[in-house]
């Protein structure tokens, strides 16, 4: 074996020239062992890198359910627990959303009042300051033959609160499409994401379709807080606009209180099938507290505030309980026209939290008044459970708005009048909750491609304390499933 004197490395590793056969055999065995150890170290490094990559993989959770089911409120509870800094940064911006909710509450009451008063005008006696008449309005009215005594005071309140309609338009323009409710749809299907006979996934929509942010609702709330690059002039103008809105609300405060506390108005709204106090974003009982120059939204106010989800929003949250593991939470639009985008998020999701508002057994979809909301949730749940793409995905059911369900039953609403299959069962909250629980369980059992556990929680997600306890259990379950799938448990 010839070794070049110009190659120092070759000289260093070359065997001794006077090496004996026994020494050569020992040296070769040592080299084989050294290669084995080196390869074992390389394999260990490769495995550790693979495990670290799996460990760093984000936990992905998809929030599903129809519009106004409580998805965004659930997400806010996640943020409240695990994203306090972003939550604090957004707190002031939620003030405009809450004011828009309040103004819409007032205008809804005014519209109901105007309708009833216009019917009374035909029966008003000339020269009389008070009109007494019997309502025969059809839409949403449950009480027939109810006499209302309207006076000049009610007409004064209508005129005095007229400027609030301009305030509503101003706030909607500031907040953008998230502030507008969908009242019609071209989609005829409850599950447009469910392509029968095909399990291929559509491409994810472009970023323009949804909102991708680390702190949620960014597209709407960012419009209300100037960035670091915004000029002082624009900042001052924004503050001026905000103060003008607050000025109008403060000026109308006493009249708003008088309107909501007026006995005749209370009599009118009490005869509606749909109670305004059951609707998302209800703040009429908080007028005295929130209509103030120094008002700062509370955590409860923010969770209750209604701001429609447009497209698909991605929210990043770091869970302390998961050793700093990043969670990606996807909040999707729940209207029928928004559901086609859901399937593109099914392929790599760790868990789905499906929300059904069981209080809506007597309600119709806002975008399609022909469709019962509970029946719509049944169809959605069936489609999600039957998806082969989600066959191994953990699905957690939140039967939400149990507080509103309880209030409706206390008011005397009978479930069997709207859900014939309920039959002759007792019309009390516990029995109704158990009935819906069993119905959803049967749908899951009959339609899941493979047997799956049935995880269910009864919730009122605007109750932040109770929801925090529920989410703690849910988070632990999802994290264990995620780690098990990553072969770390």
What would your notes on this structure say?
With 489 residues, the chain is α/β, with parallel strands linked by helices. The chain is 46% helix and 11% strand. The chain contains 16 helices and 9 strands. Helix 13 (373-386) links the parallel strand 7 and strand 8. Helix 5 (94-121) packs antiparallel against helix 7 and helix 13 runs parallel beside helix 15. The chain is elongated, with a radius of gyration of 31 Å. Mean pLDDT is 80; it is low at 125-139, 196-216 and 226-238.
Question: Would you spell out the secondary-structure blueprint of this structure?
Answer:
Elements: H1 8-13, H2 21-56, E1 59-64, H3 71-82, H4 84-90, H5 94-121, E2 130-134, E3 147-151, H6 152-160, H7 164-175, E4 211-212, H8 218-221, H9 232-261, H10 263-270, H11 287-290, H12 299-304, E5 312-319, E6 325-332, E7 351-357, H13 373-386, E8 394-400, H14 402-410, H15 429-447, E9 455-458, H16 464-485
Parallel strand pairs: 1-6, 1-7, 4-5, 7-8, 8-9
Antiparallel strand pairs: 2-3, 5-6
């Amino acid at each position: 074996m010839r070794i070049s004197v110009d190659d120092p490395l070759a000289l260093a590793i070359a065997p001794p020239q006077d090496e004996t056969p026994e020494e050569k055999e020992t040296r070769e065995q040592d080299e084989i062992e050294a290669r084995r150890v080196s390869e074992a170290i390389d394999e260990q490094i490769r495995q550790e890198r693979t495990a670290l990559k799996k460990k760093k993989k984000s936990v992905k959770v998809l929030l599903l359910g129809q519009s106004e089911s409580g998805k965004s409120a659930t997400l806010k509870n996640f943020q409240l627990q695990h994203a306090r800094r972003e939550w604090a940064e957004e707190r002031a911006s939620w003030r405009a959303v809450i004011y828009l909710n309040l103004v819409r509450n007032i205008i809804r009451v005014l519209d109901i009042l105007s309708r009833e008063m216009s019917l009374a005008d035909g029966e008003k006696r000339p020269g009389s300051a008070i009109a007494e008449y019997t309502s025969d309005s059809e839409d949403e009215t449950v009480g027939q033959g109810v006499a209302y005594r309207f006076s000049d005071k009610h007409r004064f309140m209508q005129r005095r609160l007229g400027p609030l309609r301009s305030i509503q338009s101003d706030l909607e323009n500031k907040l953008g499409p998230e502030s507008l409710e969908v009242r019609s749809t071209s989609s005829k299907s409850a599950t447009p994401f469910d392509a029968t006979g095909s399990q291929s996934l559509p491409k994810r929509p472009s970023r323009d379709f949804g909102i991708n942010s680390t702190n949620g609702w960014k597209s709407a709330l960012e419009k209300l807080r100037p960035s670091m690059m915004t000029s002082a002039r624009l900042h001052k103008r924004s503050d001026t606009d905000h103060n003008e809105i607050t000025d109008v609300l403060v000026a109308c405060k006493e009249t708003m209180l008088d309107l909501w506390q007026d006995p005749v108005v209370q009599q009118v709204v009490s005869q509606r099938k749909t109670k305004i106090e059951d609707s998302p974003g209800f703040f009429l009982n908080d007028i005295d507290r929130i209509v103030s120059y120094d008002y700062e939204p509370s955590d409860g106010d923010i969770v209750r505030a209604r701001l429609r989800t447009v497209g698909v929003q991605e929210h990043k949250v770091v869970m302390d309980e998961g050793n700093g593991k990043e969670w990606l939470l996807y909040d999707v639009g729940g209207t029928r026209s928004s559901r086609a985008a859901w399937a593109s998020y099914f392929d790599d999701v760790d868990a789905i939290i499906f929300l059904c508002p069981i209080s809506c057994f007597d309600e119709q979809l806002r975008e399609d008044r022909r469709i019962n909301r509970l029946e719509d949730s049944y169809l959605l749940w069936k489609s999600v459970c039957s998806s082969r793409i989600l066959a191994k995905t953990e699905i957690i059911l939140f039967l939400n708005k149990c507080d509103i369900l309880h209030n409706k039953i206390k008011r005397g609403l009978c479930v069997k009048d709207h859900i014939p299959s309920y039959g002759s069962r007792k019309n009390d909250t516990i029995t109704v909750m158990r009935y819906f629980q069993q119905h959803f369980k049967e749908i899951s059992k009959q339609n899941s491609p493979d047997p799956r556990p049935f995880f269910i929680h009864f919730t009122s997600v605007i109750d932040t304390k109770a929801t925090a306890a529920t989410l703690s259990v849910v988070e632990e379950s999802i994290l264990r499933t995620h780690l098990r799938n990553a072969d770390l448990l």
